[in-house]
Amino acid sequence: MKHINVALFVPDEGCPHRCSFCNQKTISGKSRSLTVDDIEKAVVTALSSSDCGDGEIAFFGGSFTAIEREYMLSLLKKGREYVDKGLFKGIRISTRPDCIDAEILTLLKEHRVTSVELGCQSMDDGVLLLNERGHTSADVVNAAKLIKEFGFEFGVQMMTGLYGDTNEKSLETAKKLISLKPDTARIYPTVVLENTRLASLYKTGVYIPQTTDEAAELCAELLLMFHEADIRVIRLGLHSGGNVQEGFVAGAYHPAFREIAESRIYLRKIREEIQKDNLAKGKIEITVGSRYVSMASGQKKSNIDELFAHGYTAKIKGNNEYKKYEVSVRLTK
Questions:
Q1: Of 196, 224, 255, at which residue does a domain stop?
Q2: pLDDT at site 25
Q3: Which residue in 187, 59, 49 sits closest to 114, CA to CA?
Q4: How far apart are CA 116 and CA 192, in angstroms?
Q5: Phi, psi at residue 219, to the nearest 5°?
């Protein structure tokens, strides 16, 4: 069965803090509270086009475990109806690290929640403070321990390029999150949206966001770190739905951001192979996994063009035995 999630957004519900970067209504495209009728409509639509038995009903957006208790339970009970019928394998929620305790996890377990994602954003307490997150890195560690003890699938979410952040701090955040042994991760380069504190800081020159190019270079390194730790990165960059384009002010936003970052990994790997074997300039044949030929070529063949600019005429071929990010390079006549 295909893994299809029904994503439902709960914008601004329950958040005890307004983070520097946050405008949930712009990100999600939702301006009103989610209702049980909304859940039913989304589920019916999903079931009409696919078998969702291995998927989850996913509540994203606001801090789910911090919303008003009866409202939260009404959403969980509606989602549970479909899980109990075997139409979905469970419910996925995202929340804040400081809104997790044994009591709430017991409640989630009773309502068939299977996956809990933590919006960690950074493991640097200075960065968390500057961006008004309202929690610490210790809260992340404590919440992660509890979530794993209760047997939930555990996911982490991190951001790059936050106010006060650096590439080095982002890499350290990734190392610390990897040490918590999550099952999944999401990485979001910071995007400056209208009606946020970051937008004000940007417009006064106090905050300088990453460009798409800068973020892609960093995220290529982060992707490799999670990949080598056998942790699935299930999203990289903001999704292209909602009103992101309309609310965009500055920062690393591109609808094909993951494709750009992954092509950087391949370019880096190809260059490493060329350097390792000290290959002379000329024609080269690059072998990658059959599924990843397009990725290795780069968006609009940008990697092939980059190699050509440095004296290498590249041909890329696929091999079913090669794993993701595995590369070999040889000279040809």
A1: 255
A2: 58
A3: 59
A4: 26
A5: -70, -25
